[in-house]
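Attaching the record inline, Q. Sequence:
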Amino acid sequence: MKPVRIFWKRNAILFCCLIISVWFIYNKTYRSSVRNELNRGLSNPGDIRYLINNKHICNDYKRVFCIILVSSDITHFNRRVELRSTWLKSNNYRPKNIQVVYLTGKINDKNVQNKLMLESQTYSDIIQGDFIDSYQNSTYKGVLGFKWVAEHCRNSDIVIKTHDNVIINLFLFFDKFAMHMNDRELLGKYIRSNEIVREKNSQYYVPTRYLKGMIYYPLSYLSGLAVILPGNLIPLYFNASITSEYFPIEDYFLFGILTAKINRDFNETGKLKYRDLTKFITSDERYWKHCYLTLKGNCNLLIAYQEQYRLDTESVWNVIIQNRSQSASGHFDMA
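Structure, as predicted:
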């Protein structure tokens, strides 16, 4: 019995070492591919190639009231299903014409890619770009969304750029915010300045070659968790991105660098402006639910999000619709 135990013990150790080695090689290769994407930069983001492009989404309509761009990790299949059945179900908001697309990159996994292609065939709402899907490449994903709208959805009145771990009360937005938007204004969480993260282990890491010698971001910007802007601004943003140096932090690139670049071409009255929605945003799900359950129609929380763990989208959505009547065809009243 002893030799048998020794045999299995040795083989178990060898097997564990093999698994660790395979993981290490894969991880090193994946990180290297991400670094290569980053080093390549965005000298011409207009060259980002579509791997999946559902370009027909807006073509069937004369006007699209709102197109929602959702940055989503390629592997978040279940999360996208949940979103389609809750706040991103377009039918909820009829007669307003709401369209939704999910933005993803790619990974080196044929099974995942095949599953994504099947998802696209089923729902016709996936836009996939030819770049590694990682947090470090979020800038690519944002530019991909702007590129797609500029090329395939110029008939949209409003564009919302957000993430798959966010929920927006669109009823409240349509009732109290949309009517007051003007064509030079962006809505979102305003950030006057943040400290630049130089720690390599952080997902917010900014290499020293960017903003060299600086401690704080020199430009104000909007947090990328949810930004609402007029559709007519998207071509300006996409065109500005084509001639802008790549920057690894998506929201600073899109809504700091590009906004500043666009504003150079306008006088003071024509410059783009930010409307700060910070007081209407929370990352506390309990506070969100308490507000809607106690204040009901008087709760003004517009956006809920999570950064550290998955947002309980279904329960957050349920408190939004609890006091709204639903028609036989599925849409909710807007009052």
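Confidence is low (pLDDT under 50) at residues 20-42. The chain has nine helices and 13 strands.

More tomorrow.
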